[in-house]
């Protein structure tokens, strides 16, 4: 028989664990980081020093340079937009050339909503049962990608396309499947057996995806 005090402690511990698994709720209206403060502990500007410019960001007015790869993304977090700090959110602008692709990837700490600003985007995700949910999105449509699930996008229109993605985390994380598999130190023999590729094919993929 578990003592009552122990039960109470376990309930509090489990609730705390669940809460800590997500971005914590802010305890202030806002918290603009002090630029000179480098400690791991949070330090906010005095509210009298905060201005409207702390809550405005202009860095995604123009598209990124997608001409080389066909795809460009401009992430926006509290690092570049201080007004987002402690609010549990971030976002990204993604631009696609014709036939441009955002490779299969996932965000381990956030659900994403993707709003099509311009163009036609083939967009979808794969659930844990290997079921694919995908369709072509038109301008003005929105799709949601549940947290941690692999998703992808491709411009299928006849002109460049743009998506605005938003995340319910200040730090959603990003894992690109091709780079995670072929651009890291996974043993070559394993990759050959897993994907049915020979050593030359593996070397070609490694050259493409290993970070420069």
Q: How would you sum up this structure, described in words?
A:
The structure is a single chain. By secondary structure, this protein is an alpha+beta fold. The protein has helices spanning 4-20, 177-182, 188-195, 199-209, and strands at 71-76, 90-96, 101-106, 112-118, 121-126, 132-137, 142-145, 150-155, 161-167, 175-176. The strands form two sheets. Strands 1-2-9-4-7 form a five-stranded antiparallel beta sheet, with no helix packed on it. Strands 6-5-8-3-10 form a five-stranded antiparallel beta sheet.
Look at the helices and sheets and give the structural class.
alpha+beta
Q: Could you tell me the mean pLDDT?
A: 88
Biggest sheet character: 5 strands, antiparallel
How far is the N terminus from the C terminus? Answer: 59 Å
Q: Give the count of helical stretches.
A: 4
Give, in spatial order, the strands making up the sheet with the most strands: 1-2-9-4-7
Share of helix, binned: 10-25%
| Run of helices and strands | HEEEEEEEEEEHHH
Percentage of residues in strands = 25-35%
Q: Which spans of ≥5 residues are poorly predicted at pLDDT below 50?
A: 7-21
**Inertia-based shape:** globular
């Amino acid at each position: 028989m578990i003592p009552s005090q122990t039960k109470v402690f376990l309930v509090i511990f489990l609730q705390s664990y669940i809460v800590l698994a997500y971005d914590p709720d802010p305890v202030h209206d806002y918290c603009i980081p002090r630029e000179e403060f480098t400690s791991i502990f949070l330090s906010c500007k005095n509210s009298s020093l905060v201005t409207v410019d702390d809550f405005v960001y202009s860095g995604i007015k123009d598209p990124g340079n997608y001409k080389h790869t066909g795809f460009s993304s401009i992430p926006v977090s509290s690092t570049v937009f201080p007004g987002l700090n402690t609010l549990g959110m971030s976002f990204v602008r993604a631009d696609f050339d014709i036939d441009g692709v955002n490779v299969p990837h996932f965000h381990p700490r956030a659900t994403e909503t993707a709003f099509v600003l311009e163009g036609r985007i083939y967009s979808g995700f794969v659930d844990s049962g290997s079921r694919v949910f995908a369709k072509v999105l038109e301008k003005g449509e929105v799709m949601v990608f549940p947290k941690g699930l692999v998703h992808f996008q491709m411009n299928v229109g006849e002109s460049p396309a743009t998506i605005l993605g938003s995340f319910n985390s200040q730090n959603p994380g990003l894992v690109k499947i091709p780079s995670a598999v072929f651009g890291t130190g996974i043993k070559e023999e394993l990759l050959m057996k897993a994907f049915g590729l020979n050593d030359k094919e593996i070397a070609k993929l490694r050259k493409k995806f290993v970070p420069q």
